[in-house]
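Researcher: We're teaching a course module on how sequence relates to structure. For the next exercise, students receive a sequence and then see the predicted structure as tokens, so they can try to spot secondary structure elements on their own. Here is the exercise chain.
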Amino acid sequence: MMLKPSIDTLLDKVPSKYSLCILQAKRAHELEAGAKPTQEFKSVKATLQALEEIESGNVVIHPDPEAKRAAVHAVFVHLIALMASASFVHLTQLFLRIALLIDDVLRSLLRHKL
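Model: And here is the predicted structure for the students to work with:
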């Protein structure tokens, strides 16, 4: 039985088998959780769909993982500061601002792919 896409074409897209495994697992979990697919699939299973997206170049490893971690950390620090300064009267506004910040972070990460 031949795996499609082949491991050779997939390893042209990522630096190592370990990176491929991690990228595939993360994307498969996202697809199973309802993430929007980047293409039409031949496969039914999320793990193989993730490999199809990696092969087509629609899903890649973030070029600067440290910058990604720093951006996510900055958002959480900002959220903690917002929560610390909130009173009970402003909780609704706080939750709305938190939701908007999370939405901005997710959109930013999706622009940079995984």
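Model: If you want an answer key for the exercise: The two ends are 30 Å apart (CA to CA). The mean pLDDT is 82.
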